Target: C-type lysozyme inhibitor domain-containing protein
Amino acid sequence: MGNLSSSIVWMLGGMALASTVLLSACDSGTTSASNTTNVAKPIAPAKLPPAIEKSMTYRCQDNGIVSVDFLNDGLTATLRTDGNLAQLKATETGGPFQGGGVTMTVDASGITLTGPGKKIRQCK
Model:
C-alpha cells in the first residue's frame, strides 16, 4: 500500500508541474499590433422603450370593457378590447391613435373607437 500512495503523490506532483509549464507558455504580457483589432469598442447605451404613464379601463355603451395603457412618449397606446391587443400610434401629441385597423380618439369624457366596418364605440 505504501508504494501505491507514493505513486499517487508522484503522479499528482507531476500533473501540477505539467500544468504550471503549460500555463507559463500562455504569457499574457506579450501583445502584438494585430491584437489591437480585437479590442472592444464602446457602445452607446441602449435606448429603453417608453414606459407606461397610466393605465385606464373604460366601459363602453355596449357594456364591453376596454383597457388602454398610455405610454409616456404621448404618441403610443396599447389597446385591449374583446380579447384583442393592438399597439396604436399617434402622429402628434393629442392626435388620434391608429393601428390594428382601429382609430381611437381621447377626450375629457373618455375614448371613441372606430374601425372599418365596425360600429363606433363610445367608452367612459
Notes: The domain at 52-123 is CATH 2.40.128 (Lipocalin). DSSP finds one helix and eight strands in the chain. The first helix runs from residue 2 to 24. Residues 104 and 113 are 5 Å apart (CA to CA).
